[in-house]
Amino acid sequence: MFLLYGLLFFTLDMYKDNTFFTLIAAIMISGGFMMLFGQYVPSWDSSYYPLMMTQNIPYRTYLESKWLIMVLGTIISTILASFYLFFGLKIYLIIVAVGCYNIGWNCYMSLITGAFIRSKIDLTTNKNAFADSKAFNVQTLLLSVPTLAIPILLYFLLTLIFEFNYAMIAFVAIGLLGILLKPFMFNLIENLYKSQKYKTIKAYK
Asked: What local confidence, expressed as pLDDT, does residue 133 receive?
């Protein structure tokens, strides 16, 4: 579904030449799955989360498994989005650059968001996260703002300093830097989840 998000903007004259909407589309195309999945960690496991916390499962292992799912989802989405080359090489380069940023930084942001969203999701029913009014609320929206706003501001800053191609290289490099800082970022995220552990367990009972 998110892969087709760009068609909303790239096929309409009022949007297709607007860089802002191109960036929004690129974030959703490459990172839509990442945000949908990541911001509900650990809500997807809410039905058995209290039991899971009594088992000998390191928090680091649990969080890294969720991070890996988001990374793989972003990589696959970015590759499958290659059909956007039909709309021009520049658009696809933006999608690839934003995809690298999503892997390097927004996967962490999604995990951080998930620590504060404690919406119980029952996967045994037909109701999904968006059908549950408690799962999608103002808090979810506000916590998602940095995921969208930071790469957009970064893009405009880089394109002011560099030519387009060099700006895209810098964008990719910033994403790779985020991957290299994974041990440091996971120390912060792990400590955050541990500090929220008992609040989360209480919310899922």
From this structure: 45
Please tell me whether the overall predicted TM-score, pTM, comes out greater than 0.85 for this model.
yes
How many angstroms separate the CA atoms of 175 and 87, rounded?
24
Question: 61 burial class (0-12, 13-18, 19+ CB within 10 angstroms)?
Answer: exposed
- Non-local CB neighbours of 202 within 8 Å, separated by 6+ positions: none
Q: Please give the Cα distance from 24 to 95 (Å, whole number).
A: 10
The mean pLDDT value for 165-190 works out to 94
What kind and span of H or E run contains 37? helix 19-38
Q: Identify whether the C-beta of residue 158 lies closer than 8 Å to the C-beta of residue 57.
A: no
Residue 65 is encoded by which pair of tokens? 């498994």
CB distance 95 to 3 below 8 Å: no
Q: What own/partner pairs with CB < 8 Å and gap ≥ 24 does 154-160 have?
A: 154/101, 155/19, 155/23, 155/94, 155/98, 156/19
Top pLDDT among 32 and 199 is at 32
User: Residue 31 carries which DSSP code?
Assistant: H
74, two tokens: 């972003």
26 neighbors 168 (Cβ within 8 angstroms): no
Phi, psi of 88 (to 5 degrees): 125, 150
